[in-house]
Amino acid sequence: MRLQRFARWEGLLTAILVAVVILGAIASPFLITPGNFSNLTVAVIEVSIMALPMALVVIAGEIDLSVESMVGLSSAILGYLYAAGVPLWIAILVVLGVGALGGLLNGLLVTRGGLPSLVVTLGTLALYRGLALVVLGPRAISEFPPAFTTFGFGTIPGTPIPWPVLVFAILAVILGLLLHRTWVGREIYAIGKSPRAAAFSGIQVARVKTSLFVLSGTVAALCGVILTARFASARADAGTGMTLTVITIVLLGGVNIFGGSGSIVGVVLAAATLAVLENALRLTGIPSDYQGIVVGLLLIVSVGAPNVAHQVSQAVDRARPGRPPPIGSVASGE
Fold it and tell me: Has residue 303 been placed in a domain?
């Protein structure tokens, strides 16, 4: 039973995380010091936060490639409104509303328009980035209030934990409970396994999928706010290139690219693994170009490795003593 449990991807990913921490600590003793914790987490915190709702979207059999452009659009709108004299808290609410509307557009085009989410969100990837450039252009807006920028790169008093990590933790707990402990989560898994069967069983497939796209867009907008606070600057090109890393975290976490399986625990472990790996590479002086190669390799591994782990798990299960042989494996006596 222990071997079978370890064969699950979450167990293997835990072992990989431990190995990465050990090797990274050997390469650079500074890796596991409290002073490095902020550097370790803050560089990947926005993509890690976006990976949580993205996991639900992928489990439901869809994908959202527009998240990085929504980050840029939300940053541009936030900077534009603040520069126009709108109170910051109102500007943030507007930005979150724009994120929800962007997700709603994606969801309606997929569920009501019958279009593939890959094509739809690839189109809105360009659309939202274009809108960001229209809103703010090439300029950058800075001089945000200190309390706002402190939220982006400051730490919780008395701890080395950055504030955005708290946002990640809260969202992970909420979505983890939603996915694994409620009827909503069961519906998401059912839709990912077979949308037709889910519809026949009474599940509102279109409504659930649209809600997940709205959630993804809203969280992407929130990440645009966090990124703006971290850099103390609003730019239309914020978030460029983040989608690849978000998808890498989701798939490395064991979420099936075809839908129907995956867990929030796996996504959290994948985010931690990527954070430690990238931080270790930086501490050892590896150029940033090579870090992109590592992310690409992780994406390839994350697609194939969970399938291998699943096959190992099945092989171990079949080898358990006392398990009846599969149908057709017993000789018929002819």
Answer: yes
Report pLDDT digits (tens) over 125-181. 999 999 999 999 888 998 899 999 999 888 888 888 899 999 999 999 999 999 999
Which residue bears the tokens 């209030």?
Answer: 145
The residues with which 135 forms a beta bridge, in sequence order, are: none
Sign (positive/negative) of CA torsion 284, 289, 290, 293? positive
pLDDT in tens, 253-263: 989 999 999 99
Tell me which DSSP letter residue 160 carries.
S
Domain boundaries, position 132? 2-318
What is residue 323's DSSP assignment? P
Q: How far apart are CA 152 and CA 234, in angstroms?
A: 12
Neighbours of 113 (CB within 10 A): 10
| CATH number of the domain enclosing 122 | 1.10.3470
Q: Which residues lie below 8 Å from residue 142, measured CB to CB, with a gap of 6+?
A: 232, 233, 234
One DSSP character per residue, 32-74 reads GSHHHHHHHHHTTHHHHHHHHHHHHHHHTT---TTHHHHHHHH
Residue 87: how many CB atoms within 10 A of its CB? 10
